[in-house]
Write a structure and sequence with these properties.
The chain is α/β, with parallel strands linked by helices. The chain folds into 2 domains: 160 residues, SPOUT methyltransferase, trefoil knot domain (Alpha/beta knot, 3-Layer(aba) Sandwich); 58 residues, no CATH class. Helix content is 48%, strand content 13%. Helix 8 packs antiparallel against helix 9. The protein starts with a strand and ends with a helix.
Length: 231
């Protein structure tokens, strides 16, 4: 499984660096490399935006050139709002952030997540140095995201692919059939109008099908139906 380094390229605003550090901590990332920052990483603004992620700022490594950051990783993923959909234009061919997150955990070594300047993003020579380009799909009318927002989306996609919640045990076919029968019996017990019964039965089945109830939810519903029928 890979480890990750976040690379910020010539950030202009200390608040953005602090906000990125906070998002890194939110999603379990700790290694930050800052290339030729045009702001003070030790400023009050940076630390205020980092909130409880001060250690990310304290540990951040500053380098003078993009190539220095690139040499610290085994695979370099650059991010860009400007992409090409043509197979002939390879420089800006990209993967959606979600697709990248699905594939990257098959790799070993260190993966660099490179984000560009607030105004110009990554320059073409920096894009060309990257092994892969990652894009966050957005509305065509305004595709450019704030640096910290873009970083947060990428971090979230990486986190969600690796920390998928354990699904609860679902009610099985026999349990669902028992639930349907109990509901049918309730309709009988309350003398539900005959001409509405079939549509209501189908509606209940469809609702349960979409809900995919867990075993705990199944037992709770069965308890409610049994109590209702006993009145």
């Amino acid at each position: 499984m890979p480890s990750f380094k976040v690379i910020l390229t010539a950030p202009k605003y200390a608040g953005n660096v602090g906000a990125v550090a906070r998002s890194m901590m939110n999603f379990g990332l700790h290694d930050l490399v800052v290339v030729a920052p045009a702001c003070d990483l030790d400023s009050d603004e940076c630390r205020k935006m980092a909130v409880h992620a001060q250690h990310v700022i304290d540990r951040a490594v500053e380098v003078d050139a993009f190539e220095e950051a690139a040499q610290q990783v085994d695979l370099l993923a650059g991010t860009s709002a400007v992409v090409s959909r043509s197979d002939r234009k390879h420089v800006r061919r990209s993967l959606a952030a979600r697709d990248f997150a699905r594939q990257v955990y098959d790799l070993e070594g260190t993966v660099g997540l490179a984000f560009g300047r607030e105004d110009y993003g990554l320059l073409n020579p920096e894009i060309e140095r990257c092994d892969i380009l990652v894009n966050i799909p957005t509305a065509d009318a305004y595709p450019s995201l704030n640096l910290a927002h873009a970083a947060t989306v990428v971090f979230y996609e990486l986190w969600s692919q690796h920390h998928i919640p354990v699904s609860p045990r679902r009610a099985d076919r026999l349990e669902k059939e028992m639930l349907y029968r109990s509901f049918d019996q309730l309709l009988e017990d309350i003398r539900y109008p005959e001409h509405k019964k079939e549509k209501t039965r189908v509606m209940f089945r469809r609702i349960m099908g979409r809900a995919m109830p867990s075993k705990w939810e199944y037992h709770t519903l069965m308890g409610v139906l049994k109590r209702a029928r006993s009145k």
